[in-house]
């Protein structure tokens, strides 16, 4: 294994995902200058051996690679396009790696605007959640040019385990969207299976064990069937975040001009979960929506009484 | 390991599933008397070392255990309740094991009527398909009394690998229904993922590889993603059979008085596949429905032209 | 207007629909012999000037036309095919008019079996509910031969206002199914409109008034928008009955080999209403399901509290 | 009837809707200065007795009321917020009436920004289409302050027949969204009814006549059932426009935090219609999607052949 070059990295967004990621880059020997709206987050990076910047511009100024890890499309647009933002501050030749989960069209807009300034851009959303970020075990789905991917690869290797270049600009976001569609849908299906089993007087645990041994097997069943049957919904990955992601799924489908009826319905289920007040529970709490909709809500005493 | 007792088994229904199952029982040393409407099927059993009966009554007459493996509810009702059928012919104390996939209420009706004649009954539908039957690797989901399950267990051990007693009469059918709901739904979700990826200009194979490495992982992705992307739909398990099974899912939900919106929609997708003429393709051909509905049908030239 | 011939009519099923219908036929001068399981119902017919029979056979024996008005498929099968039933008792040349709402295939089975005995059969389900039956203002959708329709027409004219021969045997049931599909779907759509308006802080009454004046106009809006906004759900037509009818819609679609995704989902909504305990409310109570699913349930205090 | 005051009106957007609307205002005696990107459209207004402006700023400069009638959200944002746009040019006290169909949050953003400049704003989307615009028979749904509504009322009276103030800023858009949800859904339901009738061998025309006489009655049935059964889909209101509107429905639901499963599915059906290449057909062409999905496509010979 050859020694990796030390890179100067500007890192914008030091939240629950960004903070451990920036920390891993520091630990790997890279020169990381980070910025976050919260001073506390900036201080933690400094304590970890990075450098705290007082503005996006300062974080970006001398960087070879700028990584952004932000909550949603408006934040990315503000940080990239805003006054004093990345494109105002980055010198030509900088590589901008947006690891936020946003709409494919936002990634494409960023890439196009960046190119006009001589800046290269990749979209590189991740899956694996907070645990994946802390353990440097993220899956990273990358859209953009092959050469830019190669340039960012040493950094990705520090942050994740599954790292795939899936296509041109925006492609990373599309794969992430497909992932969230399938994950959300499987939660809904497993929820309907649980509701059907329980309503039929069948032991759900025993029934799901059989499912997990055949063609219905899936990772959600492996990891979550016990907690779902027990109605334990501590996150994990919150409904609110999956709600945001389903918005991206629908936007991606609209942009690609395809109808996704299952996706459309899963988006409504996740919206329902949020509307019912379950936004801060784990996304496995889709079971609560399916249960309420199915007319069964045995674990919610107040509602059960209201049926009487 | 103690020697298993030799049982006299009446086996009704020697089709693509029943034939290899009866063969395994013969090979394991049991005395199997089989009946099927087709003489050819009866002859094959005789060649394999079993005994061919000329009627259901003859197959059932001296049996300790009667196994039925039939296409659908009407066949089970005919064979069990019809003149000269199982209940007309079985002596008290016989154990009737229906391994067909039917509605839970059919299984319960069989069990109730059997009890009135002093016959015990189990519902024991299987998953794993023809390959599972040939390789004696079926999953067997059993509903009925514990003692009856214990009595049939030596036979199940010959036929399958995952053998679970999941609850009272009908429970086996409910678990099978839950399984088919989840399997059908995952096919639809993976199909929508493929359509979204391809319509967005992303390499579907690379994208699905990422999905298969994270929380979206499932056995359908493992086994079928390559053939689906290549549009190869040789069965496997035919759409027509999955259509029958989705009818059972909806009937089970109706009996249990629960709403299953995902299940309801998956049933329509499978119906659509059948209506479009794909009934004899593998159930992964749900992709063709999703593709046609999404407005993309790149592999069906005639339709593509009709858009022009 | 020429004098109508007096017909001898056997009438089986004197419930909330059948009783007033039989009464109208008596009042129009026909000789009506009625049977119902409940003695009280039979007595009421006698008081109204009809004749009470002690069995189906007695009601059918001398009749030129037999009308059946029964709750569901199993009752029709029992009354028509059962021992001492219509086909056992009717003399050749009798016209059997089944005005029950059942599956098209049940109507076709009745017609086929009747023909084997020299009995002609029509399926003639109605819409308009109890009010329509009492006011002799039913819509009657008739399947069967043109000549048989002509023969029954004088009786239909006594019972209804819109009387249409829509096709061969079973066609009446298909049209009734299509009607219930559209009615159920419109209730769901209007419910979603109400939920969207209210959740957005818009006066639902004013908003629906606009809808009722344009292309969205429909009879449900005309008749029910005020009671729905006020959450008044006295029947009218009960959810339990619409649930039965949606089962017929799905069975009709399955028989015709067509996928009906909207119909499939409406069936789940109606099932949900029933599962939630709203079975005896008016079908406009679909609003309660949509509201609960949408995460808004302002009129159900206990549930509202459970969100807190 | 008292004489209405003559108002000076700036009118931006003189397309198929705006042109006849501006013409009606001119004919009613108002002083209309209009702007459109296309010179031809400006010239037609001048020929009709209005005044053609060379820019938004010029149209807005001296106006008491500014009306905008634009295709979609980005156009409204550009015309209102852009350099030289309405808010740059309007003097305090101007009333801005946006009659475009856009997201409720866009209307609210416009109203908020306008208020900061001392400009009042109403959202006043319409239904009734080109025919309604030409015949001055639009339905106008108005959101905003009561006093501002009163001020604009004389202009609305010139343009429409049903004019309702439905609530605060954005409320007009929400009612328009609810309208399009119900209209789209009814088209889908009527389509499924047609498909079920035809697939069952029932004369669709006769069947729909019955539906149109009962609780299923609706204006779509009244106006479109003959053309739908005949597969005539000349617009009318184009699928592409309904697709845009379903996007607004979903955005409005998301903003209001409600789940709308029927709405979500109708949006996918409309997307499918567009993806299949039917974007420029009338929205009654949803029937083509339902037909294709149902597996029946008798009027599309090429697809029919491809099933063979």
From TrEMBL, chains A, B, C, D:
Q: This protein's superkingdom?
A: Bacteria
Gene3D superfamilies per UniProt? N-(1-d-carboxylethyl)-l-norvaline Dehydrogenase, domain 2, NAD(P)-binding Rossmann-like Domain
GO terms for molecular function, please? Answer: 2-hydroxy-3-oxopropionate reductase activity; NAD binding; NADP binding
Coiled coil (UniProt feature): none
Sorted keywords for this record are:
NAD, Oxidoreductase
Q: Which residues form the 6-phosphogluconate dehydrogenase NADP-binding domain?
A: 9-167
Residues of the 3-hydroxyisobutyrate dehydrogenase-like NAD-binding domain = 170-289
GO terms for biological process, alphabetical: glyoxylate metabolic process; organic acid catabolic process
| Active site residues according to the UniProt entry | 176
* PANTHER family given in the database record: 3-HYDROXYISOBUTYRATE DEHYDROGENASE-LIKE 1, MITOCHONDRIAL-RELATED
Similarity comment text for this entry? Belongs to the HIBADH-related family.
What's the protein called, per UniProt? 2-hydroxy-3-oxopropionate reductase
């Amino acid at each position: 294994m050859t020694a990796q070059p030390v890179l100067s990295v500007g890192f914008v967004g030091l939240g629950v995902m960004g903070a451990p990621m920036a920390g891993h880059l520091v630990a790997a020997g890279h020169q990381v200058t980070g910025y976050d709206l919260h001073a506390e987050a900036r201080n933690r990076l400094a304590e970890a051996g990075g450098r705290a910047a007082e503005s996006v511009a300062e974080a970006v100024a001398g960087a070879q690679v700028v990584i952004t890890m932000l909550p949603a499309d408006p934040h990315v647009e503000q940080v990239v396009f805003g006054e004093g933002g990345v494109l105002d501050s980055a010198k030509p030749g900088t590589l901008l790696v947006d690891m936020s989960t946003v709409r494919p069209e936002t990634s494409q807009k960023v890439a196009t605007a960046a190119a006009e300034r001589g800046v290269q851009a990749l979209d590189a959303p991740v899956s694996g959640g907070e645990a994946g970020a802390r353990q440097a075990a993220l899956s990273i789905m990358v859209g953009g040019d092959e050469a830019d991917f190669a340039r960012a690869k040493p950094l990705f290797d520090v942050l994740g385990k599954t790292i795939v270049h899936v296509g041109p600009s925006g492609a990373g976001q599309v794969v992430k969207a497909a992932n969230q569609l399938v994950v959300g849908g499987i939660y809904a299906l497993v929820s309907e299976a649980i509701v059907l089993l329980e309503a039929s007087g069948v032991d759900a645990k025993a029934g799901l064990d059989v499912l997990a041994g055949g063609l219905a097997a899936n990772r959600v069943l492996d990891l979550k069937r016990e907690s779902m049957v027990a109605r334990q919904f501590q996150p994990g990955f919150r409904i609110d975040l999956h709600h945001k992601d389903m918005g991206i799924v629908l936007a991606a489908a609209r942009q690609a001009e395809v109808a996704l009826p299952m996706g459309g319905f899963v988006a409504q289920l996740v919206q329902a979960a949020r509307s019912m007040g379950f936004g801060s529970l784990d996304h496995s709490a889709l079971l609560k929506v399916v249960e309420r909709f199915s007319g069964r809500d045995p674990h919610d005493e107040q509602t059960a009484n209201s049926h009487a």
